[in-house]
Design a protein that fits this description.
Chain B: One of its GO terms (molecular function) is ATP binding. The complex is a heterodimer of chains A (267) and B (354). Chain A is mostly helical. Chain A contains 15 helices and no strands. Chain A is globular. In chain B, helix 3 crosses helix 4, helix 3 runs parallel beside helix 5 and helix 4 crosses helix 5. Chain B has 2 domains: 233 residues, Rossmann fold (3-Layer(aba) Sandwich); 112 residues, no CATH class. In chain B, the strands form 5 sheets. Chain B has a 6-stranded mixed sheet, sandwiched between helices. In chain B, strands 13-12-11-14-20-21 form a 6-stranded antiparallel sheet. Chain B has a 4-stranded antiparallel sheet with strand order 2-1-4-5, with helices on one face. Classes of the chains: A mainly alpha (267), B alpha+beta (354).
Amino acid sequence: MTRYIVWAVSWLFILLVLVTPPAMVLTEALKDGLAASVATLSDPDAQAAIWLTLKVTCVAVTLNTIFGILAAWVLVKFRFPGRQFLQVLVELPLSISPVVSGLVWLLLFGAQGWFGPLLEQWNIHIAFAVPGIILATLFVTLPYVVRTVMPVMEVQGRDAEEAAVLAGAGFWQILWHVTLPGVRGALLSGVLLTTARALGEFGAVSVVSGHIPGETETMPLHIENLYNGYQSVAAFTMAALLALMAMSAVLLRSAPDWIARLQEKKA
Amino acid sequence: MSIEVCNLVRLAPGTQQRLLDDVSLTIPKGAFVALVGPSGAGKTTLLRAIAGLDNCNSGSVLLDERPMTSVKDRAGRMGFVFQNYALFPHMTVARNIAFGLDVLPRSERPARAYIAQRVEELLELMQLQGMGGKHPAKLSGGQRQRVALARALATGPRVLLLDEPFGALDPIVRRSIRAWLRDLHDRLGLTTILVTHDQEEALEVADRIVVMQSGRIVQDATPLELDEQPATNFVMEFLGEAVSFAGEVRHGRMVLDDALVLPFIVPDGVTDGPAVAMIRPYEIAIQKPTSEQDVLSIYAAPRGTRNGYRHYTLQIGERIIPFYRPVDEDDVQVQGVALDISRSRLFRQGLLCG
């Protein structure tokens, strides 16, 4: 009996907290019909926001994947002074409010910031420009690849890599042929989590972007803008699109499981 | 290839504890050497140092008289088989074996057809025909073992290093793969170093046995020398069951503290003083007592038959001593006898003295 109650409560809770919001977003978006909803996406500012989000996500995911793999590798395979500290540092973005991290970038690169005036002379703009948005997104999404890959690497151990060293493989060959194939599931997971997080980042980006429509507005910022301007159909359409992108990224995480299950059925 | 290890010292990272304590070892071309010793003796540490996997604090390793400074110097010239095989799980058996050839720089890499042919050769050598397309997870322990060997041999190394390679195999497979390995060593003309904690395995396959204890080499000898002249009481005990009797050497005779054990003549050169006689249970003999012995105080209890020997335990006062007799001899009558341990080795302060 207890089992059924727990089952019912869990489902109810999940429905209420997790399923209702996206469902509501979708209903609101389609309030005036699909055509009206799709039409809002043809607005140039909306398209600029979608492109910017995709661009920023691509850069952040690529850089954080490369850094994440190397950081996880160093943290797992070597014992060096300051290792514990680096490990804590990697998790910092998870504990710090994104708004704070956004402010830090402003402090560094803003017009009144430490490096801002200097960079201004060289005509390099970071705050209130795309590079700032990328930096803020990088910071916020840094931990995901490292944290998902590390435990798997830990289990993997050093033996296979040492065997590869003795067979004459170089650093990159080992990374590419031995280490990475062993952690590919976790890596995919980390990359998709990073993607989902990068697509939706609001706080940090909001601080550094300056909200210039058509230039420095990402999808989440554009949604806020539309909503505040009472354009609810446009706002919810954009929100639905964003949610769909993030959710498909997360759903893809289980793709390897499905493939494995299919292969098992065949065999 | 000959291997020379000179004054190797390795400290445990961040401490002063010596994992390898000034180890020197010369292994001639074509030798099959077993490194044995209890856990923590430094066997695997020494093997890894020879392979260049760990850096040492001082000392050097020479291969054919050429110093090996990094693992790169050894690449392709030393095959290493790990305790848990360390196969690449996502690669097929064939790709695993070909790995050492696949990673060669383009200018040195053999043609694809050659690599495929080499893999086939090795599969055949390892009795793994037709397994090339499988993944390691689908193989049995013994098969994985052989894939690991094939991978280690793919680049044609002259030296083979094996770290407890049979540890995870069941006893029957173990025995057959041992003999097969020895045969492979002879056929390919390799120089092989095997790490094992199983002294029987070592005695069975190796020409030379290096006994290690606490990061040092205690003795480096042939199995026969090791048995006849173990350098220390530890070596004596490590190589098989041994019984020790305390006593004293007086005027060329070893007189045991226990009256039921007969005195015996010691070799020339053994000075007078306390000593310990150690003997294997099958080397103990029994003799008719001389008048002074208490004929009632030895009891023999049968403990079954193994490897052609009847096992007994003898109770002498408080002590219980193992004692073996060949099965074709008559059942032992130990009532009214004394022990003859004249085949003992004598130790003084743990070192062999006669």
